Amino acid sequence: MSELNEIITEQLAWFIGGIVIIVLFLLVTTMIQLSKLSKMRRRYDAMMSGNGVDNLESLLIDLKVQLDSMEDEQISQQKTLKGLSTQLRAVKGNVGIKRYNAFGERGNDLSFSMAIIDDNADGVVLTSIYNRENSYIYSKPLQAGESSISLSEEEKEVITLARQKS
User: Fold this and answer.
1) What percentage of the chain carries pLDDT values higher than 90?
2) pLDDT tens, 27-79?
3) Under a CB-based contact definition with an 8 Å cutoff, are residues 96 and 160 in contact?
4) How many CA atoms lie within 13 A of 123 on its CB side?
5) Rounded Cα distance, 17 and 76, in Å
6) Is the separation of the CB atoms in 132 and 71 below 8 Å?
7) Does the pTM of the predicted model rise above 0.85?
8) 158 closest CA partner among 116, 107, 122
9) Are 99 and 109 in contact (CB under 8 A)?
């Protein structure tokens, strides 16, 4: 046992020196970590100052709720937009018009044919025939660019013109 005590006594200086070095290393590491923590705390306080929020968790929860609400609203707006797009295709917004002289050598280009159709070529063709004594207006329904009433060459031409605009 005395030999063990002698070995411990001889090595005690090294042992204490090693422990002192470890304690100093841990002390320096602790100081560095406290410095980093202090800097992080200052940044957190700067970020949270002036916005009335006491903690970051409640802020993040509020932001998540707002984001979910915005996503729901966006889905609703997409559905509305899709519906409006479908309705817009059905609007009779494609127009073709041609003026012409219906009676050849007599008169002017006061007669006309006009096609008003949607993207499916459904709509109407209006034709006005003008001469000195009378003026006549004809209306012919269109379904897919065709009519149950026979179409003149000018009417077929304005349907083609209107389809080109769609």
Assistant:
1) 27
2) 999 999 999 999 999 888 777 776 666 677 777 888 999 999 999 999 999 99
3) yes
4) 26
5) 72
6) no
7) no
8) 116
9) yes
Query: Phi and psi at residue 132, in whole multiples of 5°?
Result: -60, -35
Q: 148 and 141 in contact (C-beta within 8 Å)?
A: yes
Write out the DSSP string of 51-78: TT-S-HHHHHHHHHHHHHHHHHHHHHHH
What the block records as the tokens of 98 is 């041609």
Which positions ≥6 away from 151 have C-beta within 8 Å?
125, 140, 159
- Dihedral pair phi/psi, residue 52, rounded to 5°: 75, 10
Q: Token pair 């012409």 is at which residue? A: 100
List the structure tokens of 129: 């025939």
Q: What tens digit of pLDDT does each residue of 75-91 get?
A: 999 999 998 888 877 67
The tokens for 139 are: 């209306």
Which residues neighbour 155 within 8 Å (Cβ) at sequence distance 6 or greater? 113, 115, 125, 127, 140
Encoded amino acid at 124, one letter: V
Nearest to 112 by CA among 104, 96, 100, 120: 100
